[in-house]
Amino acid sequence: MLELKDICFTRDNKKILNHINLKIDTDKFVVITGPNGSGKSTLAKIIMGIEKPDKGQILFDNKDITNLSVDERAKAGIGFAFQQPIRFKGITVYDIIRLSAGKDMTKMEACDILSKVGLCAKEYVDREINASLSGGELKRIEIASVVARNSKLTIFDEPEAGIDLWSFSNLIQIFEAMRKIIKRNYIDYFSPRKNFKYCR
Ligand SMILES: Nc1ncnc2c1ncn2[C@@H]1O[C@H](COP(=O)(O)OP(=O)(O)OP(=O)(O)O)[C@@H](O)[C@H]1O
Ligand SMILES: [Mg+2]
């Protein structure tokens, strides 16, 4: 359970978040919507610890995480996918998926996850995460790394941004699967040894 108590965040005399109270069960699929500039990304970053609130408290599984760093929150079981994912020159897709998983992961397992998020695994697994990737490809790679991480609670900031509408419904199935099977055999679901159906 994630609980936000009286969260306030003001910058440049603008109240961006004003006394926000929210409770989210970790087995729930929750969507927060709002106009551009209403504070969705700010709220997501505050939960992950990327931004610090001026006031308020954040509890995760009844533990106060308000003063924990991003690293500590990740270790406590919170995952995050950025609205605009970061490019890492010199790091391959396989590197990032393996690093994100935080444990040994074979190239085949990484390929299975890439395939699940709609990428032709063999075309991407050894590719560098640099400026040559399209926005949608980068977004899918980030979703793959979050899937590999298998956090108890995952926050996706605008996961549909840059993803073509034809395939977004497939990605929603991935998010639903992450929620449903989180306590069951997660890796089995993401490693069905299918033959990379998205390859041309
Ligand atoms: N560190 C900051 N300093 C100044 N202003 C900020 C800061 N962080 C966020 N803002 C402002 O707070 C408001 C909310 O921004 P935020 O990115 O959270 O909105 P959003 O709801 O995610 O918007 P979008 O739908 O466009 O992604 C914006 O007006 C933004 O310019
Ligand atoms: Mg945003």
Tell me the number of structural domains.
2
Helix content bin: 25-40%
Distance between the termini: 42 Å
Radius of gyration, CA atoms, in whole angstroms: 17 Å
Say which CATH homologous superfamily of the largest domain is assigned: P-loop containing nucleotide triphosphate hydrolases
Shape estimate:
globular
Largest sheet: 4 strands, antiparallel
- The appropriate CATH architecture of the largest domain is 3-Layer(aba) Sandwich
Number of helices: 8
Reading side by side through the largest sheet, how are the strands ordered? 2-1-3-4
Beta-strand percentage range: 15-25%
- Catalogue the ligands: adenosine-5'-triphosphate, magnesium ion
Series of secondary-structure elements, N-terminal to C-terminal: EEHEEHEEHHHEHEHH
